[in-house]
Structure formats: C-alpha cells, structure tokens
Amino acid sequence: MDQRPxxxxxxxxxxxxxxxxxxxxxxxxxxxxxxxARNAIPPGxxxxxxxxxxxxxxxxxxxxxxxxxxQALFGINCKACHGADLRGGDLGGPNLLRSALVxxxxxxxxxxxxxxxxxxxxxxxxxxxxxxLPRADAQAIAEYIHSxxxxxxxxxxxxxxxxxxxDILVGDPGRGAQYFAAHCxxxxxxxxxxxxxxxxxxxxxxxxxxxxxxxxxxAPVPGAPATPPTxxxxxxxxxxxxxGTLKHLDDFTVSLTTAQGQYRSFIRQGPQGVRAVxxxxxxxxxxxxxxxxxxxxxxxxxxxxxxxx
Amino acid sequence: xxxxARCAVLLVGASLGLFGCALAADPTQSxxxxxxxxxxxxxxxxxxxxxxxxxxxxxxxxxSLRQIDKxxxxxxxxxxxxxxxxxxxxxxSRNPFAPPSSIITNVGGEGKGDYAIPPPAVKGAVLQVDGVxxxxxxxxxxxxxxxxxxxxxxxxWKTRGGTHIASRGPALWNSSxxxxxxxxxxxxxxxxxxHENWHVPIAEFADEYFSTxxxxxxGNHLLVGTGNDSDAPGFLQSFDPATGKLQWKRYMVPxxxxxxxxxxxxxxxxxRHGGGQVWMPGSYDxxxxxxxxxxxxxxxxxxxxxxxxxNLYTCSMVAVRVATGEIVWHYQTSPxxxxxxxxxxxxxxxxxxxxxxxxxxxxxxxxxxxFFTLDRVTGEHLVSYKFGTTANWSKGTKANGQPDPNxxxxxxxxxxxxxxxxxxxxxxxxxxxxxxxxxxxTHENTGFNILYLTDPDPRGxxxxxxxxxxxxxxxxxxxxxxxxxxxxxxxxxxxxxxxGTGTSVLTTxxxxxxxxxxxxxxVAMDATNGDLLWHTGIGNISAPxxxxxxxxxxxxxxxxxxxxxAFVLN
Lengths: 309, 570
Known about the structure:
The structure holds two protein chains of two kinds. Chain A has helices spanning 7-24, 55-58, 64-77, 79-82, 100-104, 111-117, 135-149, 173-183, 197-200, 204-213, 284-290, 295-305, and strands spanning 231-235, 241-249, 253-257, 263-267, 276-280. By secondary structure, chain A is an alpha+beta fold. Chain A has a five-stranded antiparallel sheet with strand order 4-3-2-1-5, with no helix packed on it. In chain A, strand 2 and strand 3 form a beta hairpin. Chain A starts with 6 loop residues before the first helix and ends with a helix. Chain B is mainly beta. Chain B is globular. Classes of the chains: A alpha+beta, B mainly beta. Chains A and B meet through helix 1, helix 2, helix 5, helix 10 and helix 11 of A and strand 15, helix 3, strand 31 and strand 32 of B.
C-alpha cells in the first residue's frame, strides 16, 4: 500500500516551492531525505526521515553471546519447522518474522511459554510441540529471533538476502539483433555509439534499464547529461522563430537556452502567446516503443546488447 | 502538559464528559457555546462549509457555490497564503529580535519526542467550519482563520515512530476534532482550543501498522482505518466519538476458519497476513445506511505465489453496515493483485441512468487503471473500462467485469515491462464527479517500469519486498473526464512534458474543474471540454483543492506542501 505515487513528487514539490520560499526568506528542507531543520526535537537513533521506525527495529542490540547461543539452539530445535531464515519451513511452521506473537513480545514473556509448552493447532497451522529447554535457553532463542526481526527492511521486506546473482539474460541474441536492426538502427549502431556498451555497463539488469529508458549509463562522460537534451522550435507571433535546448514546457510557458547560451522564455496563451511550439524529443522513439515491446522483445535486445563487449 | 494531565485525571476520576474536560482544560470556553458541527448537519446538502474529507458524504467533491463561474474565474486572485509551522512553540522566541510567539503548542503523545519527523505537508482534507480551517500533517494539527490564514492553535504529538508518509486530514463531530497518528492513535481534540480530550490506540504498533486515514463521522460512529505494509491484516473500526470506546472491528481478510471468503486464499495463515488495509475515507449513502470503502492490496505485495486465489476482500469496493460493520456486498476491482495497486480510492456516489434505467450508482477509478460503475444498493456490476491508456498487465476483463491479471506481468527474474508503474494510474489523489456534466474527473499516470523479481523464494517474499523496479518512461500523463455510462473519456487533456504527478480534483455547479497539472500549476478547466480557463504557478498541489464561502465571498483553497493558498475574486 505504498502511498507514494512517484518519487518525483517530493522533488518537484521542493523545487516548485523554491521561489516562494525564497521570497519568504524562510529556511526549508530542500529535498526528501534531508533531515528536517524546523522541528526542535533532535533525531533519535532510528528516526531517519522516510524510514519506518517500529518496535522491532527500536530494540537495543542484544548480547552477542546470548544471540549466538540462541542461533545454535534455533538451528537444533526450530529450524526444521520455521526455516533457516525464520520465514517458515517445509514442515508447516509459520513465518516468525511477521508473527504478531513475536512482534508483540518484549523480552521473552510471549515466546518462552510457547517454546517450553508448545501450542495447539491454531489459525490453520499445525500444533507446535513443547521443547524441554531451560528458561535461559528459551530466552536466548527469543533474543535471536528479535535480532533477525530487527534486520527486516523498510515496508515489511525480509532481512537482506545473501547475494545470489539472478540470471536475467534469458533472451535470444540473434532475435535481439534482428529487432535492433528493425527498430533501433536509425539512431544507434553496434559499431558506433553502442560499441562496448556491455563492457561499460557490465550488469545486464542495469543495461536493460538504461537502454529501455534511453538513459546513458556506465562511466559518466564529464559534462554530458544522463539523457540527451530535448530541442524546441518556437514560432513567435511575429512569425520569427527561436530554437534551442528545452528548459521547461507546460500549457502556459515554454523556455529554452539558445545555442549562444541565451535563456529565453515565452508565454503560450492569449494574444501575446507564441504561435507554435515544436518539440524534438530524441527519446520520442523510446517512449513510443514502450507501448509496443513484448517482454520477449526486451529480453532479446538485452541479450544482444550484452554481446557488445 | 499540566493541563492535559489534569484533564486526564478529571476524566478518569470524576467521569466528566468531553465538554467538562474541555472546560477544565481551558476556562475561557463556555458551556453555552453550541457544537461546531452536530453530526446531523452532515446530512444536509454541501453549501458554504467544507466539513468532511470530500465536502459531503457522496465523495463527489462537487460544490454548489456559483460566484466563481467560467468567465469570472479568469479574475481569481490570492486572498492569503500561510505556511504550517511544526515547531513546538512555548511562547518564547529563540530570536532575541523577534516578538514572542502568540501560539503555544499543545503537546501530547506517548513517545519520548526523540525522533526527527518530516517537515509538515498537507496531503489530505482541510475542513472549513464556521470560518475556521482545520489542517493536519503527521503528528500535527492546526486551526487557521479561513478569512485571513491566521494560525489559531497548534497541537503536536510526540511519536513512538512509524511510517510518516501522510495524514489524510481530520474529522469534526460536535466540537471535537479527530485525527490519526503514524504510531496508531486516534486523538480527540477540543476543536476550539486544540487541547487534547483523549487518545486511544487503534492498531498494534509492534505489527508495523501506521495510520493516515481521515476519520469519517456518521451519526455517533467514528469510522477509522489504518495502514500496514508488513503482512498484517487490514480492518475498519468504529469508535464512539464521545469516549473513544470501540464499537466494532471489521477485518477485510478472513481471520477465522469459518469465513465465507476463505476459499479465495490457499490457507488461513496466508489470509491472516493478507493485507487489505483501509487507509482512505469511504463514502456514505444515508438512504441505504451503507458505508462504501475501497481496500488496499494483498500482501506479500509483489509475490503472489503463497497466496494463490482472488484474496478477498483486498483491492475491493466493500459496502459496510454502519451500525454493525457487517459486509453487505463487495466487488473486487483487482483480483489477486501483485503490483501494490491498492483500490483505496474514495468511491463516488451519484444517481444516473444506465441503459435507460435510473440507477443509484457508485463509481471508482482504481490505481490499476480500470474504471468501474456499480449499483450501490446491490453491488451489481454495470461498467468496466480500462481508463489507463497504457495499462498492459491484464488479459482483458472477465464476464463479471473484473480485469483478468496476466501472470507474466508480475515481477519476473528477467524483468517485465509494466504499466502503470508502482504508483499506479492514480493513487491517493481524489477524483470528482459533476452531476451537471455527468462526467467523472481523474488524473491518469502513464508511467512504465521494469519490474524484477529479486526474491524467487517459493514461499513468497514479505511485505513489499522481493522486487526491484526501474522507471523507464512515460507516454504522456493526462487528465480525463470519464462518461460513467461507458467508462470512456468524453475528453482527455495530455499535460506537456514527461512524467510529473497529477493531483486531486474539485468541481463546481458553474461547470468548472480545479486540479493541478504536472508542472506545478494550479489550473481551472471547463468541465465540459477541458479548456484551460485560469492557472497560477504555486507548485505541485499536494492536497485535494476545495471551496467554501464566507461573507459573500467564494474561496478556493489549494495546498502545496506546507503552504496553504486561498483564492477569491478581488
């Protein structure tokens, strides 16, 4: 239920407000992620703006020796049912990282009795047997579980997984080459701008994200924008024209920087408004293709580009 | 602080009523003052005030005010602007050259006050009753003079933590103002003074619930929803607005083995962790006494492998009996969602004609890109249409009008190219309906993303984890006027540029639509054809625009982050 439709919203908001705030001469947090300056209350240990802070993550770190013992005991007694990662196992034990009983436990008062006495079948799950463990050992298991809960990531995601590279190159390079020839060759070439693209962008997923979006990636070229600039031709009321690199366009104004470096802006509506605005967006073809690719086309072209070492 | 503590003691010790507590807290208040908003007043047609999230119970965001019309709107200009101040003020100034603040912040909360919180931003309803505006932001509430923008009081809540994404606004019942906090409290304030009446917990904070919804007052029921991204069940609750006592709690996923919709889940354990949060205000039909709300996505959000089935009542329109919480009918607008596309959008109620027959209707434009019109008495499906022009995740619609998800457009290891992107074709932004034009107004996002499965575990992932997405472009974001009889656009205006977030909508009896474009302009359009009639570049509109009248002047109110702007015909 992420309620953020677009990260650009926050950035745009701050940018849009900029002029206004300047006029009011009041300090403002410039962008999302910056610590808010206006609240007098100092930041807490986990109180980073934008990040959830919940009891499972606010808990002070436990004794490493106790947690290590708890981990060993968990492996012996609990892992078979609840899984090595606590996310549930083959024998039907529930995921402990989202268990209300675990999350509500403060210091073992809810977990220890379940470990020591077991639990009847409930909530559609199998019964849990009792484990004849001394209280200190059951407590250590509870401490270990809490330490893993504390590693859950934002928005309820599991603790970070061990790095296991997933193979995203499932496409056919030959079909990709054909698709490229049919749709991309008017602007791009394997021996020209895309030469060595798979070396410059070694990660195939980054390569895919970049070419589909029309973003430049890999080693940055000093001074070059991440995407090629959009050109605009403005026809004035007088019939004259002004062209340059588009800076801003909405229904009411258009602005550009000319080849000589002069900034110009024009209104678009009313008797003083410009006659026409023609935008030449170098990414137009990329945008059009978004509605046409199949996932197979996309994977094929990625597989082809991945051969351009 | 002392006042609040004394109030609490009085409440417990002497069982004083709300008003008694308010008197104890602020001796300037008089018991002879009439209530600001008796609940029965919410049944009257919307006129000069703006007393609820959408103005009235219908959710239409339609005002009958007529001073600002298609020709006068060109002369709309600023009456005042003001900014939210979230500082905890004690009357002293840290700046020796500044005069002392006239506002002394009322402080409540169960936390230690040791967390930094985001700067204030209006992302929900601003209520206007009796010349006073009531505004909320996470952990904050304010009152302002609606004629001048002058701050009247400020309340600050010391949080325990939680996701500080938004507050969708307050609710008013008699002279009590209610709002929810990110750390899961329902807080009741004296609306005249900003002093706390009481607060009650509404969800288990340890289970990672966070609460943003604008509460809804219906008679002596205060309907309260909450949110969660972490595999916990969603629910709607009703509280006694006088005391904060729980009246009923209705889960939106099966919690017991005898639940009739458990067959839409593979197991009770999956259902009990299945989401379906209620985090936006619904609409209310006094004729049938039904509260109709949207519900959120199922969880885990992106990996449906461990929750095969339709996953009721997630991503649904649900009609609830206000007295009991009983579900009278439901219609699922996104069966087995795997994209975090909530169907939480406020449903809109109106009467219309379908196939020559007059019908009592409810319509919604869902985050998944589908528009629906139903019979609001029975829940019978009447119209479906894919209003999201680029939405590509469905194989079409089934016989009952539901979209039929294409499993290949879930997150995959090599990546699937999906539109809309995570935020959806629409999201929390409020749509509007104008009964004069018969058109339903909503913005439309056309973003694409490549959605990768990063956690291919056969048990599924958790929460919103297990995926990565990369936004790769837009096809031109737009604004649509939808014919409710077909779902097709009567007109569609594409905003220039690439990307940008569309905003909520207000419409009026003079044939106007107010909304934000994707470039930081607040605009007025002709509701019949989309012609642009007025604009002002105040920044991206963050809260639903609204309108009210005072002293013969019609105001239009817009919010941009922490700034409020009121426009009038000067």
